[in-house]
Structure prediction request, 226 residues.
Amino acid sequence: TQLLEQSPQFLSIQEGENLTVYCNSSSVFSSLQWYRQEPGEGPVLLVTVVTGGEVKKLKRLTFQFGDARKDSSLHITAAQPGDTGLYLCAVDRYQAGTALIFGKGTTLSVSS
Amino acid sequence: NAGVTQTPKFQVLKTGQSMTLQCAQDMNHNSMYWYRQDPGMGLRLIYYSASEGTTDKGEVPNGYNVSRLNKREFSLRLESAAPSQTSVYFCASSESRYSNQPQHFGDGTRLSIL
Prediction:
């Protein structure tokens, strides 16, 4: 059983469109991280959310942590080709602060 | 700004050969990690080192060994490579073992086992 379910698995859109990707679980987490990975590179942290209901914005990206701290969403406004990549969510693996477990990711392709 | 450096970037091995993947970080981080990334499987933790002198198994440790050589360096060894170990391997580091700390990743080692 996958601890984190990310959806959709793949998303292909045109420049200028809006999109939302999701990271869901049946477990409660103390914090959740979102990473973006570009082809040929390692993941890079975008944001960490720690409070239920928290909303964080990073330019055109809006991250929300669910009220019950079981899920999160990432919304991109007016997507650009530079947003293309693999979006990964990650949570505390053992609920004791030892390591992260990652979802399988959403692969986003934005064409101009 | 080197961050996390992995060597080599690419490697092809024959089944049964051994190899060590090297990782070094220059951020004075306490914790280091090794992951493998396979299509459709996401990132899976192989081993981690919460602090210098300690190592622990992750989700998929079989067939691998690690050494935390010092605070900067964390190596991953394949003693007898198998085709199932064909993957992209990422090393990461973080300031501490706590989950709200960001992990900084290297650019990966692409390993093929024939």
In short: Chain A touches chain B through 25 residues (CB under 8 Å). The longest strand of chain A covers residues 85-92. The mean pLDDT of chain A is 91. The CA atoms of residues 78 and 108 of chain A lie 13 Å apart.
